[in-house]
Amino acid sequence: MSRAPRALKEQVFEEDADLPVRAMAELFGHHAAAETLQRAAQSGRLPHAWMLAGPPGIGKATLAYRFGRWLLAGGAEGQVPPGETPLHLDPQHATFRRILAGAHADLRALRPNTGEKGGVKMVIRVEDVRAAIRFLAMTPAEGGWRFVLVDGAEQMQPQAANALLKTLEEPPPRAVIVLTTAAPDRLLPTIRSRVRRLDLAPLDHAALDPLLMRLLPQLSATERATLGQIAEGSAGQAVALAEGEGLALQALVDQVLGDLGNRRHWHKVADAVAAKRDGSSFATFMALLRRAISAGVRQAARGQGAPAWLEDRPLAEWSTLWDSLGRLAAETDVLSLDRKQAVLTALLWLSPSRR
Question: What pTM value is reported for the model?
Fold first, then answer.
């Protein structure tokens, strides 16, 4: 009796999370930082290691790839025609296209991955850093430079950070390392002392809006402006909020804060926030709620016309409440507590009747 043909196993391809970053040819904001990198390379005294620091999602990795493309294409040696913006490289250039495809022999990027033994914590593993160090020590395949990007460097395992430190102390020739981090203080002081630091600020509206038009073309100008405001100048955060129903959740935050004494809609709000089983809506709602409180307190402290709901209690109480909401959100996540009850607890704390 003949056997039935064996079913082919479905292939699952891992999503390339870095692709949109590598594909970004335009420079949105950060012109001063890009000019600093370009001048340093053209001076003939290019520091071997850089740290791009700033809030999540503001374009640190995008700028690092832009620098790497330009450098590997020969920009420091004048082989790249000058563009209207610093570190410009034509998207049709062969170096741009190979880096976009993840196939350039002289560039390697490290990003956090899940840890060993099935853990969920995202880390940059020591074996990946050691492989990158061996890569840097090799002769450049195309006769120019070797370039390593460590994206999210604060998530390096301790052994990985120590391994990288040795290379920073004795760098190989014609090798450049760029670290990006949203938490520079979490890096070893000895690492921070051996890199040239560039701090990137959140994008202003003039730089952020055209970027969001490209990334989120389906949104209206009003929706983009709202996202840009609640994301505080971070394109990455704005995209994440758009994908995670951020606009709808911001509307719930506005509704709650605009009518703190009205308990009739509490259960409806809590049901909406706790609807997703993965907890993403709850995490976003609590983050937006705390952001609104923080922004309101800052406005009041600067005399910039704080929202009316802020008058329900002294500023010091709002600061304490902001901290308490953060602990509530963290405990709910870590201990897998009931998210709807956590939202109701938060709304009770916000209610003026609690004074």
Answer: 0.79
